[in-house]
Structures
1.
Amino acid sequence: MKRLSSSVKTILGSILAVTLLVTLTIFVFKKPKENVSDTSKTLNVLNWTSYIPLEVIKDFEKESGIKINYGTYSSNEELLAKLVSSAEGTYDLVFPSDYMVDLMSSRDMIVPLDKSKLKNLENVSPLFLGQSYDEENKYSLPFLLATTVFLYDSTKLPRLTSYKDLLNEKLKNNLILLDDQRIIIGAMLQATGRPMNDVREDSLEDSLNFFEKLKPNIKAFDSDSPKTFFITKEVDAGLVWNAEALIAVEENPDLKISYPAEGFALSMDNYCLVKGGKNHDAAYLFIDYLLRPDVAQKIVDEYPYISAIKGVDTVPENELIEILNNGSYVENVGADIKKFDKLWAKYK
Amino acid sequence: MINPSRTTIPRGVFERFSQPVPAKTATTRKEKPSLFKTVFTLPIIFYALLLIALPILYVFFLSFLRSDNYGGYLYEFNLENYGEILDSTYLSIFLKSAVIGLATTAICLAISYPFAIFLRGKSERKRNFIMKLIMVPFLTNSLIRTYGLITLLRKNGVINSTLLNLGLIGAPLNLMYNNLGILIGMVYTLLPFMLLPVCSAVSKVDQNLLDAASDLGAGKVQKFFKVYLPLTLQGAFNGSLMVFTPAIGYFFIADVLGGGKAMIIGNLVKNQFLTARNWPLGAALSILLLVITFLLVKLYKKIGGNLDELGGG
């Protein structure tokens, strides 16, 4: 009797285990439903985190009847990795920054835009067009512009105008920098009078020397939410993205924003269509929707970057021209990226 | 009868069923795993192969390739990535990681022993209750807990404002965005991995030995070094292994509480994948971490450690 029950157990156990295995396998290999359903009604978007308010997406879905599958990334490299590792046709629309547009177009990952499909194209301010990374705007159209700026507490510090001002004794263990190797090494290069994308050994060496002098002042590197450091009064000065700075100023009006005289980083994010995307028509509709001034206004109200759309309340035109003249984009430096990576390890 | 071996398997199974079950001694159990066990371990084996062994092999393979500088790789076999690791810039990061790892381990040991000896004197009910109190916070995601620490440690955080209000300090202490912050975070996150094996080892120490030591005039310090320590060395090593290994890789603690100023091996690996677009170098660094872990486990086995305890804590 005992033996029988043990053999029954064995058989039952085997059945159970096999069922478990089969169900697991089915779960693992089963394709998500969205992909099999009507593809003409779904648009697969991959965008930066905290960049388009949910409300804007919902409004578009209601207006057009198109469902948006919205994925996010937090760096251009993450976007690149996601595109490289996913099957063709997974994504339709992405928002790479300047140098990544250049890289992706040179590697045939994005397709030329058919601008005749965009009714609202004329809303794009010409100041944003024809940038160095895509001079004819063949592959990209500008969405938002970010710049690095100084943010400082005006009650404690005189106006910051140069990177050398960051060496101020008062800023000991009191400064925050973005945790981004290209931006910060670029800033140190600019501080020593070199171009931001300089890869010559002696220039990089100089940047390291300047950084060593600055080091005692640095409290932290943070790219996720540097504004928090100002809101909680952890630091009195920093080099941060403009939108972060504006949000911090709203919280604390004593904080002031200024631009480094030696130059600063620009980062322009763009609409690009992924090669092999299944629903480019819906992507054009969505881009056209985002090109509307009222929609663009809603976006910058929530995330105060500089909109590429005319008539949106961001910075005055003369200031914008100055920003575009004095700022530099991070450039794709090919294999020299290894130099930056090693230098960053030395920095830290 | 195309394939005779196909028929022999079920026959063998039924033969086994019809035979009297042999007495379950340790040796027979090892020799003949029952079908029941085989079937139930299959999913685990399948899982381990597919999700652990295969990816590690892939990482190993990747570490011999060359980066194409665009996040991809070229299939050119080379050892350059391993050569690169030996660069002085990277070596200094390994050294820093090792120092942070060792300091974390030492602090965890220093906290765990007195606690374990204290716990040993309590009744079982109290012991279970206290252990539960320790474990409950660790059911929360460690990244969230790390962010939680910020509210305590920052310049205007709970600790600094309390101390300032009590007049104990004149200016806020720098508790985070430095190496101290990293240490606090590491110790806080990894302490249970030390507490569990050390408590279990200390609770197993024979009371008679302690009594004998007391009778012979040993004080608390002597009892610790002559009785507790030698008898619980395995547990301590077990815990050290499980604290040191993650401590050199937990990049998020170095980022969040160290203010991103200190780079440990974990940050270096992360950077290769996420910013430098150099997956082969990242893979080689990961293999290095695996080798370090492997060597430590070897050492653990050599001093007589039990691998099962390592897994179960």
Note: The interface with chain B takes residues 3, 6-7, 9-10, 13-14, 17-18, 20-21, 24, 75, 77-78, 80-81, 84, 103, 107, 173, 179-181, 218-222, 232-234, 334-335, 337-338, 340-342, 344-346, 348 of chain A (CB under 8 Å).
2.
Amino acid sequence: MAEIIDGGGHEGKGGKKRPKKGHVHMDMTPMVDLAFLLLTFFILATSLNKPKALEIIYPKEVENPDETTKLKDDLATTILIGEEDEDVYYYFGKFKPDTTELIPTDFSKDGIRQVLLDRNKDIIERVDQLKEKLSTKEINDSIYKQQYAKLVNDSLAPFVIVKTIDKSPWRNVVNAIDELNITNVKKRAIIDMAESEAIAVRQTSAERKNNP
Amino acid sequence: MPKVKMPKSAPSLDMTPMVDLGFLLVTFFILTAKFRPNEPLIVDTPKSHAEIQLPEKVMVITIDSAGRAYFDLSGKDIRTAMIKGMAERYPSLKLTDQVVQRFSVLGMFGMPVASLEQYVSGDEKTKAALDKQTLGIPMDSLNNEMADWIQEGYEAFMADAQAKGVSLEELRKNDKLRLSYAIKADGETDYEKIEKVVDIFRDKQIYQFNMVTSMETGDN
């Protein structure tokens, strides 16, 4: 039990000093119970994980996708997000109806991420070098940011177009952007799918359902 | 060998340090706790690896899986100014002091202006019933109330910042003082609905968004 030590307070002149025998005991258990009850309540009621935010910057005006792909076809990767959760496909370069094959993929570790890592190898390597320089204090934070921006926006850097239809689930769009962030692809755009691509997605999706 | 004498009285344990610690923690949690506002809309946000925390000064548009949009901007003074601005735009919205007062401490809302007054002055039951049947804040081109809320919210925020002595220069430079825009949507929501909200913002020359996500666990 908790105890309060009484310091024997009678020190008046002439008075007989009579040291107290033993201690004054106070039962602190109910108070402790209450304290821990409150503690438990507040721990449980506090929301510990604050929501995180994924930053997306939309372009001022939707760029003309045909023009960009025409210029640097070989740098383009297009991710198509269809209606169903598992309708995620990609292709490289320019879309040609009938001949372009849509490659099914997903947002797991070995899905689209590997494709983009491979595609963006040079940039990622250079970003890593830059990060190392930052960690060894060779360059400071502002130079790092500047060089990083220069690196990822290089005109030869691969770029990714995320194409959606009206019914694309938001989760897949967020996942796609997240993968782009992980793989340091900063040149990107989210635009609506062309009709020819939407048809190709529907066909591939139907084929996959028929022969699993 | 001498016999070990057992004390006769009950063993006593000094609990004071434990109690001290207990109360210290209680105090800490009481002071840091922020109560979760009750959310009329259930939204299961997608997961991401994003590490940016949601800014403090933020206008949040919440969209559930059915595509209903709710609006939220916190700050008592800001909200008061905002609803007064809306009442000027929509003369059908009749404001009493009580409505303004209750609106200023409300959380997110997703009512068309026509039923806003009923919602704000209603009790919990009325609110729950209205939340159930609402279609969110109208966003179609004929009746774009969402655009007006965003506009009024922005203006109210700027007026409030200036009243607090923050100059425009500081607002432009400092990310923490500036108003951010967040979209909190359910993972199941059709992208079309989000695009609609984004387009309203883009009309107002706002291009940067914070998409609210929850943290991804595991290595995927």
Note: Chain A touches chain B through 47 residues (CB under 8 Å).
